[in-house]
Amino acid sequence: MSQQNEHESTTPYDDVFRTLIVKGGNLIIPFLNEMFREDPPIRMDASIAAVANEHFLDLGQGRQVKLTTDSILVIDQNPYHIECQSYEDKTMLLRTCQYDWLSAMPGSLVEGDTIHIPLPYSGILYLRRTTQTPETMFVQYHHPQGGELRYPVRTLSLRNYTLEDMISKHLFFLMPFYLFNFEEELKHYDENKAAREDVIHSLDRLLGYLNQMFSKGYLNIYQYGLITDMLRKVTDSLTQKYKSARKELDEIMGGKILEFKGEREYNEGKEKGRQEGRQEGRIEGRQEGRIEGRQEGRIELLVNLVNAGQLNDAFAIKQAQKFGISEENFKKMLTSYDPGDERLQG
Fold first, then answer.
1. Is 121 a residue whose pLDDT tops 80?
2. Which of 17, 60, 198, 319 supports an S-S bond with 84, CB 3.0-4.6 Å?
3. pTM for the full model?
4. In 3-state terms, what secondary structure has residue 242?
């Protein structure tokens, strides 16, 4: 998660994480099942819809700060908020809590003397070794009159996962970050032969596995290209200070990663065209006028909550009308909205 006003502040790893979220389709499902350990687990064919990840925090006196989450997804009508953290940060839990509330507010509904706020499943992926990070952290609110609200924030530390773990659990989503587990070896790549061989052997095995999964049809050409492209980006960044390691690992990837440039560009263009066409069709079909991006996100969340049985139609219609949506159009949205069209099929 990043906090921004006049300047953008992101890392290559933030970009990789968001790209995997936006373009990876159902690659996110095994990762979420591992993080939240839901019973029953999320199905691989679950519908996946992204929610707008920018929010504006009002500081008063006309001042605002733009805050950007790493990912907010609605999967089978359940909201998920996941953050990716490179370094241990003692304020991370507080900021995650802040974003949980900001992301929930568009779906908040006032009924009589009560406001209903649908908090998401919340989790943090830690890329680097942390000091005894627990599997679950908690946010607990204390009211001065004695009331309390406590909810969990799940964590997942990459350092806890070997390549065998990622393979056995189909954690393709984590594989682009795999070399984070070898940062110490990269520091001694030139003078320590064992460290060098360990890194090379591990990268070679990872690429061999990805090629095998592609050849067997477990990964489609788009997903294979996405994972290997993001692996290149992370590796380039991690080895930026280590020229010999960067050169050698780049050569290994160049020799091992299958290249289908023409076909990939065709598939990517076709997929982009389908998504843009669906988006335009949804907007034109659902609205009598143009709705601002943030309002559209709120309406989609209302639709998800109704379809999940968490809100009654009459109450949701009243809230939709506040955003300029007529009762007739909102009912059409309830019957026509299909977030499953957003996902990539593996």
1. yes
2. 17
3. 0.69
4. coil
